[in-house]
Amino acid sequence: MRILEGEGVTRYFGGLAAVSDVSFHVERGEVAGLIGPNGAGKTTLFNLISASLAPNSGTIKFKGVNITGRKPHQICHMGVARTFQTVKIFANMPVIDNVRLGAFFGTSSGMSAAEASREAAELLEFVGLQAVSAIPARDLTLANQKKLEVARALATKPELLLLDELMAGLNQTEVAQAMQMIRQIHDRGITIVMIEHVMTAIMKACDRIIVLHHGKKIAEGTPQEIASSETVINVYLGEQSYAGG
Amino acid sequence: MYVVLTVSWVIFSGSTGYISLAPAAFFGVGIYSSALFGNELPLGIVIGIGGIASACLALLVGALTLRLKGIYFAIFTFGLVMLIAHLLLFWEINITGTRGRFVVLVDYNTIYYVMLAIMVVTLLTSFLIRRSKFGSALQSIGENEEAAVHIGINVTMFKVIAFAISAVFTGAVGAIMATRWTYIDPFIAFNPLYSFMPVLMAIFGGMGRLYGPVIGAAIFSYLEEFLITKFPYYYMLIFGIILLVAILYLPDGLVGLVQKLRRRITGGKYANTGR
After folding, report:
1. N or C: which end of chain A has fewer CB within 10 A?
2. What predicted TM-score, i.e. pTM, was given to this entire model?
């Protein structure tokens, strides 16, 4: 079953089509990758799905319901959570409060204070931040701030999680940890769409990959298909001719 | 009076980080409610009208303008004060053919106790908001609005409500203060000074704790009276210097200073838990 579906989604910034007539879908329970060179429109597409931006044309459906034109907080209540390319945490609040806020406000039904605290503590343990739950979020390392964002997103009880460059700026060990975390989130039955530049990670983690280039979808398929696709190699992986020449 | 103005300003601006220069507008609305209805209605109801009228104005203005960020919002709210003042003046001169109004007198004891009551309610509200879900949502907006909206917080609604709550108290104070002045006109009622004072007092006192703005307001109003009586000509100058020093050397206000001292005394025992 398709959990997310986009039909001819287009968004202009001035005269530039950041995302142009992109149709895509995500199956329930899969891990989908979204790749493409810088400026390809990956984050813009995330912003359109999570309603940070409204598309100029096209529709986006979540669980078969048209969600185009809804407000970001409504999208969150429906079960779509996201993280950000540049971390956006509540820096001066304690780590646990960051997550607790997600639990408080992220679901449409709401939660009692005790429930939210329990939920937050449980999620911090899940991402491995229980030891630092009381310190201000700004004092965390980048890797931990990213984990915190994931925990906060999970606190909103999503069915679909959008991860925007979770691994950018992390070292090898941290990337390995992040990979494991993605698997564990997936095991919880949450569908994941991830934007990533770390190729080994995306090839290993994803069931299916969508490739964007200049705002257009140029390819889609399993990691093997993408890795061997002529077009993808030309625009994305194969900058050999430029680099070499 | 300044305590209420400052604390109610902090309810909205302190947590969300939206600098509002609208207090004078709400204050003026309160004053005019008092002038318009003071003769016919009992004091309690007049104060209620002052508060509710201000809140309605805040809801309207908030819904329209809270998408503006940073300096734009500040300037807009300031413009609002000027706009209302001039509109009222226009109205009085061209339509009613008067300038200013007299306000019914109330004895000083009553004013004092009413003011005290409003202050207690304001402090209580501020205290409760700080401890509530609502308060932490406001704070998250101040921290990172984009993240707040994506974890399901209806930021527009929360901002508008907080704006309205802070307006209620400001309006109520305006309504009671008007009775002390006996005569008002648009430029007395909508004096921009009442927008700046709460901001300065809040910065001076520090916004991190509930008592910060209270101390700031108390010290400032005392200072103002003191300087006016001792140095009637230089008081604004001295006032300005004190303020500059406070901003330069006390970025977290008096509260920040107190916390820093306390930490030094305890020997940095909690250095890794606090700020």
Report:
1. C
2. 0.82
